[in-house]
Amino acid sequence: MTIRCTTSPQCLEAFLVKYRKVLQCLTFADQYSKMSLAKPVMRGLLGKRLRFHLPIAFALSLMAAAAFKFGVTEPRKRAYADFYKNYDATKEFNNMREAGIFESVRPTGK
Amino acid sequence: MVRERRDLYSLPDAPLASRCYSHSKVETDEEFDARWVTYFSKPDIDAWELKKGMNTLIGYDLVPEPKIVDSALRACRRLNDLASAIRILEAVKDKSGPHKDIYPYLIQELKPTLTELGISTPEELGMDKL
Q1: Shortest Cα distance from B75 to chain A (angstroms)?
Q2: Percentage above 90 pLDDT, chain A
Q3: B89 burial class (0-12, 13-18, 19+ CB within 10 angstroms)?
Q4: Which residues form a coiled coil (chain B) (predicted)?
């Protein structure tokens, strides 16, 4: 269904000129396409960031330290303790002596 | 030698502005802004005071309000210091950090002043690109 415009070009032009600003507003054309920006938050931005990130940073650091302690140092300490629990120094010395690594004592010559 | 006698009490300086809710009176945002507008509005402000004021202001955890920046730009005009004026714009852009909506808002609010004083933005001069 076609609509025929019965306004004369001159009338149409006059109308457009007169109501240019209104039309621009309605169609968001030209300078009205950029709506005036709202005021953003401008204060306390770093404080907000720190309040969010610092607890996380501390928590992660503590978790890393705990993980290292219980994943590395404790097993290592246990391994040493276990090794030396029933360690016979004399027996080990004699084994080393027989292996011939000492200079101060020679192997019990046979 | 000249700087010894500098009246540092005229600086609207840190202690009141830091928000530690202790025994001292807490300054409101409006009072803070008014103080800084007054500081830069001094008719016979000198270059040192302008630089000192800006450096102090940039040290705070805030992006200066448009009216403070406006006052500072007018001080630059009185001192015939276009370089500092453009630098102030770069500084407030940097202060906004990752918040990309602050600088366009500031420029929007400052547009009349920038036009009046004939200050180009760093973007217009192509200085925002490395």
Answers
A1: 22
A2: 66
A3: buried
A4: none
What's CA B89's distance to the chain center, in Å? 9
Distance CA B51, CA B64 (A): 15
* Section B98-120 average pLDDT: 97
Q: Which of B61, B65, B105 sits opposite A46 (nearest CB)?
A: B61
Question: Quick one: three-class SS letters along B37-58?
Answer: HHHHHCCCCCHHHHHHHHHHHH
Can you read off the two tokens belonging to residue B97?
């950090």
Instruction: Look up residue A24 and give its two tokens.
Output: 């621009």
With an 8 Å Cβ cutoff, are B63 and A42 in contact?
A: yes
What is the predicted ipTM? Answer: 0.76
Q: Is the dihedral of CA A24, A26, A27, A28 positive or negative?
A: positive
pTM above 0.90, yes or no: no
Cβ within 8 Å of residue A40, ≥6 positions away: B99, B101, B102, B105
